From TrEMBL:
SMART domains: AAA
Keywords, alphabetical: ATP-binding, Nucleotide-binding
Protein name: ATP-binding protein
Biological source species: Bacillus kandeliae
Entry keyword Nucleotide-binding: yes
GO molecular function terms attached to this record: ATP binding
Domain (AAA+ ATPase): residue spans on this chain: 165-301
Length: 412
């Protein structure tokens, strides 16, 4: 088996292991598979709590992103010839004119024949996910209602009290606990357009282009109000200045300028950031008027875990599942961990059916069996957080984690 395949298998078995994502990314980069390398490094960053490894992965991610951009540029300098032909049979049955695309290798002249299909609008749809899809996190939902959704709808009232609407909110917490999910749901609740932004949408090897990319994203969101922009892994954009290079510093400055350019009393625009490493986010980003509201997204509690099991098993062929028993045995499991447990259980039952030929539903024992092989992924993060709270919480930024640790700290 080649090394990439072997590493891909390892990643499948240990989706939370940053080191394996890193190795896979390196291997893919070596063979010039830049897009996959970027995906692997991104996954590595999302699951990494070791500072040295994280810095190394970010370095490789920046490099791979640069290579990918270069590849894109060289392709666009000499694009392949695309001949687009209307597909007549389908055209009559479908409203959106479908087209057959043929790649023709003619190195000298380029020709693009448009099939006449309507140009698609770049406007993202209003998010359909709402709080009803997010299990548990009731306190967080209340906070978001008070701090984000109400100001969004009651601008006049908030103006009377000179209370700001809009601005930036930074969600932080262990990976897989629903930061992205709840940001999307918040957009759904506000009936706003949702703009998810990833570091790879911004970074570019050419000086000044990353800043332009970032500015263009803000401009687009400004044009499509009401809008919620969601910046994942803010720490990689706003990596502590002390640790960042001259290149990323320009990006931080643009980011700050754009955020301050949002007029919170008139703009129906909100920036939500997420990070697993709030302590790595440049302090400049956490000042008033920027990401001045830090909200902790904790691992799901027992009740929420029950709901997540229910949600993730919904629609599968199963017997009455004892979700309370499963929830009791999954303390500190993230939503993503629980999703993974459900997937593995379904996989094992399918495998059994395929070998024995006897069809049967998923049972509670199947899930319990999988649990014997799984560890909660949030513990490592919580241990790191414990140290930061102990030694770096003078300003009270991490009071939410402190409160959580007071309740669960002894078990961590
Ligand atoms: P994060 O952004 O915190 O790393 P995500 O929001 O991407 O995590 O969550 C990963 C997946 O886990 C989501 O796609 C979702 O299906 C599931 N998940 C996490 N938390 C919840 C939750 N509270 N309710 C329902 N699903 C959840």
């Amino acid at each position: 088996m080649d090394k990439v395949k072997w590493l891909q298998q390892l990643v499948q078995q240990n989706p939370q292991d940053a080191q394996t994502h890193y190795w896979l990314g390196k291997e893919l980069a070596e063979t010039g598979r830049w897009l996959e390398a970027v995906q692997s490094f991104s996954a590595g960053v999302a699951h990494c709590s070791d500072e040295t490894l994280r810095a190394e992965i970010i370095h490789e991610l920046t490099n791979a992103t640069a290579q990918l951009q270069q590849e894109k540029l060289s392709h666009s300098a000499s694009p392949p010839i695309i001949e687009v032909l209307p597909n007549e049979e389908e055209h009559s049955t479908s409203e959106e004119a479908e087209q057959k695309v043929k790649w023709i290798d003619r190195s000298a002249k380029f020709k693009v024949i448009d099939g006449g299909g309507e140009q698609k609008s770049e406007k993202p749809p209003i998010s359909q996910v709402t709080f009803a899809d997010v299990a548990g996190l009731d306190e967080l939902k209340k906070t978001i209602h008070l701090r984000i959704i109400s100001p969004f709808f009651n601008k006049g009232l908030f103006a009377k009290f000179r209370k700001k609407a809009g601005g930036g909110v930074l969600l932080y917490g262990p990976p897989g606990c629903g930061k992205t999910f709840i940001a999307r749901a918040t957009a759904g609740e506000c009936q706003a357009h949702f703009y998810p932004v990833h570091i790879t949408d911004i970074l570019d090897p050419y000086i000044g282009v990353s800043e332009q990319n970032l500015k263009a994203i803000f401009d687009k969101a400004r044009f499509q109000k009401p809008s919620i922009m969601f910046f994942d892994e803010v720490d990689t954009i706003g990596f502590s200045r002390a640790k960042s290079s001259a290149n990323t510093r320009g990006v931080i400055d643009t980011f700050l300028a754009e955020m301050e350019g949002i007029d919170t009393s008139t703009d129906q625009m909100l920036v939500i950031g997420a990070t697993n490493m709030p302590w790595d986010v440049d302090n400049a980003l956490k000042r008033p008027g920027r990401f001045d509201r830090l909200i902790f997204v904790a691992p799901p509690d027992t009740e929420a875990r029950e709901q997540i099991f229910q949600l993730k098993l919904e629609g599968r062929y199963m017997e009455n599942i004892d979700v309370a028993k499963l929830a009791a045995q999954t303390e500190f499991f993230s939503g993503a961990d629980i999703e993974n447990v459900c997937e593995l259980a379904a996989e094992s039952v399918l495998e059994e059916i395929l070998t024995t030929g006897n069809e049967r539903p998923i049972r509670t024992e199947d899930l319990l069996n999988v649990l014997k092989t799984q560890q909660p992924s949030t513990l490592e993060w919580l241990r790191t957080a414990k140290n930061y709270v102990k030694y770096a919480n003078q300003s009270g930024l991490y009071n939410d984690i402190e409160q959580y640790l007071r309740k669960y700290g002894r078990k961590i």
